[in-house]
Amino acid sequence: MKLFQQLLVAPAALGLLAPMAANAAELNINGVSDYSASSEVKSISQFSDVYPTDWAYQALTNLAKRHGCVAGSPSGSMTRYEAAALLNSCLGNVAQVNEEEGRLIEEFGPELAVIKGRVDGLEARVGEFEAGVFSSTTKLSGTTAFVMGGVDGVSGSEAVHFTYDTKIDLDSSFTGEDLLKTRIRSGNFGSGPFSATGSAALEVASSTSDALQIDRSYYQFPVGESLTATVGAVVRQDDMLGVWPSAYPSDSILDVLTYAGANAAYSLAQGAGAGITYAQDNLSASLLFVSDEGSDATQGVLTDEGSDDITAQLAWVGDNFTVAAAYTTSDGGNTANTANANDYDAWGISGIFNLDNGISLNAGMGWKTPEKENDASNIEDETTWSFGVVWSDFGAEGNDLGVAIGTAEGHRDDSGYDDPLAYELYYSMAVSDNVTVTPSFFSIEKDGADDITGGLVKTTFSF
Fold it and tell me: Is 42 helix (H, G, I), strand (E, B) or coil?
């Protein structure tokens, strides 16, 4: 920092000093306003108290001419505070002063100190105001999605629905390398086909009945150069994975097609959890657990009564491809040692291959084996898979075309089972940097029931 940047203040301090009838400790707001309208001293003739016969007057005149910091010739006197403001204006960006300039600084030192104190006080109050508005360690961002659409094939739900989902993210960092994530979410998706669990469940759907709920609360931080740890009271499986092995979709529609083809291995379990990821060069390895009932007083974390998921992932990230294998074991809180669909072991392998023309190919497959089978309840071995293509900048820069096919549910090796599939096509259009409009059409097959077809338009606002 230059010498006078520490001692002197901006020439705007001149506006704080006139008129000097005010108490020296008061802040002249009108003077600030008047001076801000003219960002520089126009002429020495506007000053009174330091007279043309004084050595300081002549020294200031020479200073002004030498540095070109004021216009015009001297004609009249100036106050000592005005002289100090002029001195600051001329020397504020000077790295080294001569003997005469040093004498001026010594002469007007008390006035310079008063000016500096006033402006420092103003800057402190501005800082307090900004800190009161929001923390300097935290960034706020969010999205709101409007979804308008309907389905055919679901009795009693053949109507147009208009719903919303809002996510507000508070990302805090205390060291520049850590992350404290808090997400608040609200939505009014009901219990029909367009919901988080309905027959045409959407990835964007949340059903909070318009209430604000904490959707994420976790802390992520580095441990050495290659390890990253995550711990949270409300954290989801994919928040702790080193790699998400799919670039499909870029704009999510059907929920069933967003699990990288391995729906049980990448179950996206959510609750209290912790995990650690090792990343070095192209290799990534993660180990984590999620306890769905971690906040429950009786079930707790990693207990026999609670539902716990443990996941291990090994991935390789190349220049234009990614491949990952995952293993998940879940107990579903099953203490009765009976057939339970959520008590299983699952494996998955998924990958991404990016072509040079902006096309991304995404494929994955998964296997699920329940701890106890029950054919009558359809609790048995299952396979899932999906294949999706995303074409970036299709038609216009920022627009994406996506198409995918995959299992509508886990396929079982049963006689007469018709292996239902899900299909979708979407086109994401970037209306601006903050608004995206995505029309989509989809179809979902159901075993032994009518197929579901539908369409929607999703408008996403980012802020």
Answer: coil
Which residues, other chains included, contact 229 with Cβ-Cβ below 8 Å and sequence gap of 6+? 220, 221, 222, 223, 274, 275, 276
* C-alpha to C-alpha distance for 68 and 58, rounded to whole angstroms: 15
Q: What angle do the packed helices 80-91 and 99-107 form, to 10 degrees?
A: 140
What is residue 192's three-state secondary structure?
Answer: coil
Q: What is the pTM of this model?
A: 0.71
Chain length of the chain: 463
For residue 352, give the nearest of 236, 249, 226 by alpha carbon: 249
Tokens of 450: 């009518």
- Residue 14 in contact with residue 82, Cβ under 8 Å? yes
3-state class (DSSP) for residue 369: strand
* Collapsed DSSP state (helix, strand, coil) of residue 161: strand
Write the CB contacts of 379 (distance below 8 Å, at least 6 apart in sequence): 339, 340, 341, 370, 372, 373
- Domain locations along the chain: 3-132, 137-462
pLDDT of residue 32: 35
Diameter of the chain measured on Cα atoms: 112
Tokens encoding 178 = 């850590």
Helix then strand then coil, % of the chain, to nearest 5: 20, 40, 40
Residue pair 181/150 in contact (Cβ under 8 Å)? The answer is no
What pLDDT score was predicted for residue 343? 94
What parts of the chain have a pLDDT lower than 50?
Answer: 1-47, 72-73, 132
Q: In the CATH scheme, what is the code of domain 137-462? A: 2.40.160.10
Strands 213-223 and 435-446: unpaired
CA distances from 435 to 62, 143, 428, 456, 462 (A): 58, 10, 10, 16, 6
> Which tokens sit at 79?
């106050």
Amino acid letter, 185: R
Q: What is the dihedral of CA 276, 281, 283, 285, to 10 degrees?
A: 0
Element (H, E) at 349: strand 344-354
DSSP letter, residue 142: E
Residue 60: which of 27, 45, 28 has the closest Cα?
45
* Spatial distance between the Cα atoms of 210 and 215, rounded to a whole number of angstroms: 14
> Environment class of residue 426 by beta-carbon count within 10 Å: exposed (0-12), middle (13-18) or buried (19+)?
buried
Cα 111 to Cα 60: distance, rounded to the nearest angstrom: 15
103 phi and psi, to 5 degrees? -65, -40
Whether the Cβ atoms of residue 146 and residue 453 lie closer than 8 Å to each other: no
Q: What distance in Å separates the CA atoms of residue 201 and residue 442, rounded to the nearest whole number?
A: 11
